[in-house]
Amino acid sequence: MALRLRVRKRRFVCLEALCPRRSFTQASAQLPASAQLPARSRVTTRLRERVGAAVAGANRAVSEVAAECGIAWAT
């Protein structure tokens, strides 16, 4: 069974006219984003490692492992 994690962050807008960023998202100390959930990722680092180990170590088909984990084989 796949676990679906939805992360919602607030978006802030800078009202300073000369600000180069214009908008930015909230940082969260509760979610170690760089370690387990890289920016714009669709799967966690741990799941990616698990799929890789199952395909390489157990000689299983990518599509079989992906379906078991609830992700697309191209992920």
Can you describe this structure?
With 75 residues, the protein is mainly alpha-helical. It has a two-stranded antiparallel sheet with strand order 1-2. It starts with 10 loop residues before the first strand and ends in a 6-residue tail after the last helix. The protein has one domain. The radius of gyration is 17 Å and the shape is elongated. Helix 2 packs antiparallel against helix 3. 33% of the residues lie in helices and 8% in strands. The model has no long low-confidence stretch (mean pLDDT 78). The chain contains 3 helices and 2 strands.
Structural class: mainly alpha
Biggest pleated sheet? 2 strands, antiparallel
Total number of β-strand segments? Answer: 2
Instruction: Report the β-strand fraction as a percent range.
Output: 5-15%
Measure the end-to-end span. 17 Å
Total DSSP helices: 3
Indicate the low-confidence ranges by residue numbers. Answer: none
H-E string = EEHHH
Instruction: Quickly count the domains.
Output: 1
Across the major sheet, the strand order is: 1-2
